[in-house]
Specification:
The complex is a heterodimer of chains A (326) and B (252). With 326 residues, chain A is an alpha/beta fold. Chain A is 37% helix and 15% strand. The longest helix of chain A has 16 residues. In chain B, 79% of the residues lie in helices and 2% in strands. In chain B, helix 5 packs across helix 6. With 252 residues, chain B is mainly α. The chains are: A alpha/beta (326), B mainly alpha (252).
């Protein structure tokens, strides 16, 4: 799922250069602003001076939700006293995992479904829908490779087939199976790679037996505008999208055959880093993510995508309003 | 995205692994393989990759054709009259600075996604070099030749068609070549607004792997090279014999 999404218009310009093997350093690594206040409530992260000597680099993949999560974790670890750097915008999970294994980052947020599906080739149907089970399964696989992961976030995110509510009402669509007999007259928009992904068009054709009139490849950022402008009848959306939280304009079709796995976020790190960083590392991360329910992450995504705020500011506001930092 | 890895670790890719990547890329072009995301979905192979390359080519040809049809007459008229230098040269140069990714995103609001969007965006790349070169080429035609034609009783349109245009043809073709290469290389972005071109591979590392990304990049470069060579040949063919003789004389 999430692996299908990190595409935006800017990536293309970079991709041409990168593909030719030119080392163009794009990602910045800056230090978060320090925020060590006096503790007052139970939720407040305590700064531990023993952590000051430990350097951590928090990574993330390259789309809104990941930037926000990366910032939340980085700023929280900073508040716990660690010497934190950021290496956000790492591209797809393949790159993020390699960076982690090479020790260039200390850890990054990943979706259980992506970890299981992409790293360990678990078919979508075999990925547990229960967050704890999926997280335990991913953790067991990761530990075989010297890695490990922490507890899952409350929210789960997945790709989903969506449409305008008006279209859904008109055609009587509630679940993906309802598209049978109708899909040949409908256009589906998705990422350019959707046509060859089993959790996208390829799976809709194979598992649901659907044939669409046309598949329109679009930038991920256009997933709502293609519906708004009538360029496509159906579009691949993300369940954590802000647009789904605030109105009934769009409808998600239920994935009744369990084609598209949903995943909670787990912070993946290496066993070595986890050991060196001490207990505050895991406890801080698990603490600050405990308020991240689906409506909350939708709201945070919307502050970045719709209100155009910086992920760092959105993360800082979340941490402050939750009482994690002052 | 191998480069960002090289970047993080602070060294360039070693030669051996570059060669290995190229082998993988060519294998991706020739043979089908399992998608990185699994599920028994096949990606790559001659027909799939060839289809993308072909789309890239015809989308480019369409945009170039429309650009030519607009820019050539405009450049001829402005050049012949000696007016509108600001428009032909100034605006022409300014338009080259417009970011194409911005244009396609902007056009989504007006024409939506699809071929129309792509063609308009690519025309913004194609028109300026053809317009500017046509204008300059016509202005630089030997005034003596034009005066002689007028002295022989030719009218404006005849002068354009029989004297100015042939003498200006090589410079105009240089503009067409620039336009064509820019368009072919940039048609990758069509994948983001509804037309699947080689950009799909370049953007799809999570599905096609590094081999697919590199295969797309190599093919875009090859297409641009092919177009350049093809149009250079056309340029040599349409250069009037007199000009060719003049040039080889001045070179000697």
């Amino acid at each position: 799922m999430s692996s299908a999404r990190p595409r935006n218009l800017v990536t293309l310009a970079a991709a041409g250069v990168l593909a030719l093997g030119v080392a163009a350093c794009g990602s910045s690594s800056d230090t978060t602003s320090s925020s060590s206040g006096a503790p007052s409530s139970a939720d407040l992260i305590q700064s531990n001076s023993a952590n000051g000597k430990i350097k951590l680099t928090v990574g993330s993949k390259n789309f809104t939700e990941q930037f926000v999560l990366g910032e939340i974790y980085a700023q929280a670890l900073q508040a716990a006293g660690y010497d934190v750097k950021k290496q956000l915008n790492l591209g797809s999970e393949t790159i993020a995992l390699k960076a982690l294994k090479d020790g260039q980052i200390s850890g990054y947020p990943e979706y259980t479904s992506t970890a299981l599906g992409s790293f360990f080739q678990v078919p979508a149907q075999k990925i547990p829908s229960d967050a704890t089970q999926a997280s335990d399964m991913a953790k067991a696989d990761l530990e075989k490779e010297g890695l490990t992961s922490f507890a899952p976030t409350p929210f789960a995110d997945a790709n989903a087939v969506g449409t305008l509510t008006s279209t859904a009402d008109k055609l009587g669509l509630q679940k993906i199976s309802d598209l049978q007999g109708k899909s040949q007259d409908l256009t589906l928009a998705g990422s350019p790679q959707c046509s060859e992904r089993i959790d996208c068009l390829a799976g809709l054709e194979k598992n649901y037996g659907l044939k669409f009139k046309k598949f329109t490849p679009v930038d991920i950022g256009l997933r709502y505008s293609v519906l708004d402008h009538g360029d496509a009848d159906l579009s691949i959306l993300f369940t954590s999208d802000a647009q789904l939280a605030n109105s009934n304009k769009y409808t998600i079709l239920e994935d009744d055959k369990g084609l598209i796995p949903s995943g909670n976020v787990i912070f993946i790190t290496s066993q070595k880093v986890a050991q060196q960083a001490g207990p505050d590392f895991q406890s801080t991360i698990e603490k600050v993510q405990q308020n991240l329910t689906l409506p909350v992450i939708q709201e945070l995504n919307s502050e970045v995508d719709i209100d155009k705020k910086a992920p760092a500011d959105v993360a800082a506001h979340y941490l402050k309003s939750s009482g994690f930092i002052k | 995205m191998a480069a960002s890895e090289a970047c993080v670790s602070g060294h360039l890719l070693p030669l051996a692994s570059v060669l290995d990547s190229f082998r993988g890329a060519f294998d991706f072009m020739l043979h089908q393989r399992d998608s990185v995301t699994g599920g028994g979905v096949q990606v790559g192979g001659l027909s799939a990759v060839g289809h993308l390359a072909w789309t890239q080519l015809w989308v480019s040809a369409l945009a170039l054709g429309v650009s030519f049809a607009i820019a050539l007459p405009a450049g001829l008229i402005l050049g012949h009259r000696g007016k509108g230098e600001f428009l032909a040269v100034g605006l022409g140069n300014a338009a080259r600075a417009i970011p194409e990714l911005g244009v396609i995103a902007f056009l989504v609001a007006f024409v939506g996604v699809g071929l129309r969007n792509v063609t308009i965006a690519l025309m913004i790349l194609g028109i300026p070099p053809i317009l500017t070169n046509t204008f300059v080429a016509i202005r630089q035609v030997d005034r003596g030749a034009v005066d002689a034609a007028r002295g022989m009783g030719m009218r404006g349109a005849q002068i354009v068609a029989r004297v100015e245009l042939p003498l200006a043809a090589p410079t105009i073709m240089t503009g067409v070549r620039t336009a064509a290469i820019n368009i072919v290389a940039t048609a990758t972005i069509a994948s983001l607004v509804g037309v699947a071109t080689l950009g799909k591979l370049i953007l799809g590392q999570d599905t096609y792997g590094v081999d697919g990304v590199l295969a797309g990049a190599i093919l875009v470069a090859l297409l641009a090279l092919m177009v350049e060579l093809g149009l250079s040949a056309v340029q040599r063919l349409i250069t009037p014999r007199g000009l060719r003789l003049q040039r080889s004389a001045s070179r000697a």
